[in-house]
Design goal:
By secondary structure, this protein is of the alpha+beta class. The chain has one domain (14-201): 2-Layer Sandwich (Alpha-Beta Plaits). The chain is built from 9 helices and 7 strands. The chain has helices spanning 30-46, 72-91, 110-122, 124-127, 142-147, 158-161, 167-177, 184-195, 203-213; strands spanning 14-19, 49-56, 60-67, 104-108, 199-200, 215-219, 225-229. The strands form 2 sheets. It has a 5-stranded mixed β-sheet, with helices on both faces. Strand 2 and strand 3 form a beta hairpin. The two termini are 26 Å apart.
């Protein structure tokens, strides 16, 4: 089966997931996580990608980011992945691959899904039963977005900025979003879109993506869908 085309469009957020090969740990020590975040900051700046949210789990990473050039996310993740594998193999006296193939990503509809995906990312440690509340997990953007503990890596998206007229109001409004759980249907929707390199959003957003990318989403009569790649007219 042919590999689906990766949708890379400027100024549209992407939910990015990269997993350790065979679910093996890709972070073992505190220093591993520090190095990864430092290089994420370096390469996001180099390739003009604004990072809005992240979480470093034991064997995978979630990032919510907006590229300002079409290939920005791909260039950032390729550079970051190569550097980090060399670092990890050297420090932990190992060889071979670390990542499970190429990273996965989905375009995110800012109007309807941006803050939902941000919550999804920062709630990962809670869903994994590693902690009881997102503030208890150190390696996440929750501390910046909800608690005002500044991280130079983070660029606040207009959706986040619209939550309030100042930092304290925005942080309070953002924390309030976590008072309710994400529904099972919403979790499944986010996971499905990301795993299939799909588009997470409403019909209008999907139509806009079709026009911009030349990739048409065809809905089958039984409710499924597939890619149909066409050249733009």
């Amino acid at each position: 089966m042919a590999r689906l085309p990766r949708l890379n469009l400027p100024d549209i957020p992407q939910h990015i997931v990269q997993r350790g090969n065979n679910r093996q740990a890709c972070f073992v020590t505190k220093q591993d996580r520090i190095v990864y975040l430092e290089k994420l900051k370096e390469y996001s700046g180099k390739f003009e990608v604004a990072v809005h949210a992240f979480v470093l789990m034991t064997n995978h990473v979630h990032i919510l980011a907006t590229p300002h050039q079409g290939e920005g996310v791909s260039l950032m993740m390729q550079a970051l992945g190569r550097y980090y594998v060399r670092y990890f193999n050297k420090i932990h006296a190992r060889t071979g691959t670390l990542w499970e193939g190429r990273f996965k990503s989905a375009l995110v509809d800012t109007e309807n899904y941006f803050l939902t995906v941000s919550r999804y990312i920062e709630l990962n440690p809670v869903r994994a039963k590693m902690v009881e509340a997102p503030a208890e997990y150190k390696w996440t953007s929750y501390h910046h977005n909800a608690r005002g503990i500044r991280a130079k890596l983070i660029t606040e998206h207009p959706c986040y900025l619209s939550l309030g007229c100042n930092d304290l109001n925005r942080q309070s409004a953002y924390r309030a979003l976590f008072d309710s759980q994400l529904s099972r249907s919403k979790l499944d929707e986010i996971r499905s879109a990301t795993n299939r390199a799909w588009v997470l959003g409403g019909e209008k957003f999907k139509r806009d993506i079709e026009i911009k990318s030349g990739v048409q989403i065809i809905f089958n009569s039984w409710g499924g869908n597939r890619w149909n790649v066409e050249e733009s007219c």
